[in-house]
Write a structure and sequence with these properties.
The chain is α/β, with parallel strands linked by helices. It is built from 13 helices and 18 strands. It is an enzyme of class 5 (isomerase).
Length: 365
């Protein structure tokens, strides 16, 4: 995608893998700032503090963290230590574990002197593959939007929750990839953007959509059900942090409520995600997916622009007041109309038709 007319990705190699560049997403949408991370612990901290965020992106960032770790120490024990520490940063998003395990598997059988060049090459390949996968997801998703437009012959209203755009991936995004490609194809559309508290990731979505001129409206999280009820939403499209073998979906907290409203009003509810988001080892998402609980300060404090035009943070909940901050919820497969992947769209129960290799893993597990 482009920022101020300049093609930009969320992560890139610096000095042939001696460091990586990122967009500090904690500064958005008020400030666009790039940062260079020169060691694996800096990448780990960036993932934990959500300087890089979005399930696909943190997976790619973790792959590059492995490159930087192997550059410093290519011994087996150290590689496994780094693997464990990276996975612990964000336990719900399976892409992170998938990426780290893929890197470890790729290098661990090699002599130590050969590990770094192979790791670098693999991380580069994974980065580019993410872009191609997201473009394919968008192509499949755009067909859904086109079909809705063919029936309606008026702008298609899409509701999305959290940020599943290019900022959450290397480029294009997942849920928003469908929106971008449909827009490129000239399909009239409009996006309802949940503000998505805490952390207000919906503001990132609005920032993205503004950058390419896609009509959109930011709404309070609790307004989504009302809009669905009054037929102002033609489809809900969200991303995912983990999808189980039977199609249960973990995504940003509040997703489940949108799915319930959509089901009640017979509005299609789609989940867009690459195959690396599918966890074939888990069946029941409600009981099998670890839900990350984040700091209560994400609820206690909120950031914005003050009357003087400066970015400021204010406290809205007293320190002595208890808060609970689960970062994700699980939407059961029965509420999901379809899952949009790089290989196509299917109902949750037919995931193994698109990914027979996943079904074999499931059987062996």
């Amino acid at each position: 995608m482009k920022v101020n007319g300049i093609p930009t990705r969320t992560i890139w190699s610096v000095d042939h893998g001696q460091a990586i560049g990122i967009i500090d997403q904690t500064k958005l949408p008020y400030e666009f700032k790039k940062e260079v991370l020169r060691d694996w612990t800096a990448v780990k901290d960036a993932i934990a503090t959500m300087k890089v965020r979005g399930a696909p992106l943190i997976g790619i960032a973790a792959a590059w963290a492995m490159v930087l770790a192997i550059r410093d120490n290519a011994k087996d024990d150290f590689i496994h230590q780094v693997r464990s520490e990276l996975i612990a940063t964000r336990p719900t998003a399976v892409n992170l574990q998938w990426a780290v395990d893929h890197m470890v598997k790729r290098v661990i059988s090699l002599p130590e002197r050969e590990r770094l060049p192979v790791a670098y090459k693999e991380a580069e390949a994974m980065t580019q593959a993410n872009v191609l996968e997201n473009r394919a997801i968008g192509t499949h998703g755009a067909k859904i939007i086109a079909e809705l437009y063919a029936k309606k012959r008026e702008p298609v209203n899409i509701l999305t929750h959290c940020n599943a755009g290019w900022l959450a991936t290397v480029d294009y995004g997942t849920a928003l990839s469908a929106v971008y490609i449909a827009f490129e194809q000239g399909i009239p559309l409009h996006v309802w953007v949940d503000e998505t508290r805490p952390r207000e990731q919906g503001l990132l979505t609005a920032w993205e959509l503004s950058g390419v001129g896609i009509p959109h409206t930011v709404i309070a999280d609790n307004a989504g059900g009302h809009l669905i009820q009054h037929r102002e939403v033609d489809a809900v499209i969200v991303g995912a942090d983990r999808i189980t073998a039977i199609g249960d979906v973990a995504n940003k907290i509040g997703t489940y409520l949108k799915a319930l409203a959509a089901k009640d009003m017979e509005v299609p509810f789609y989940v867009a995600a690459p195959s690396s988001t599918i966890d074939w080892s888990v069946q029941d998402g409600k009981h099998g997916i670890e839900i990350e609980n984040r700091s209560g300060d994400e609820l206690r404090f909120i950031r914005g622009i003050d009357k003087k035009g400066k970015v400021s943070e204010v406290q809205i909940i007293q320190a002595q007041t208890n808060v609970e901050n689960p970062a994700f919820d699980v939407t059961p497969a029965r509420l999901v109309t379809g899952i949009i992947t790089e290989r196509g769209v299917c109902a949750p129960e037919f995931l193994t038709r698109l990914f027979p290799e996943g079904g074999r893993l499931q059987t062996r597990g």
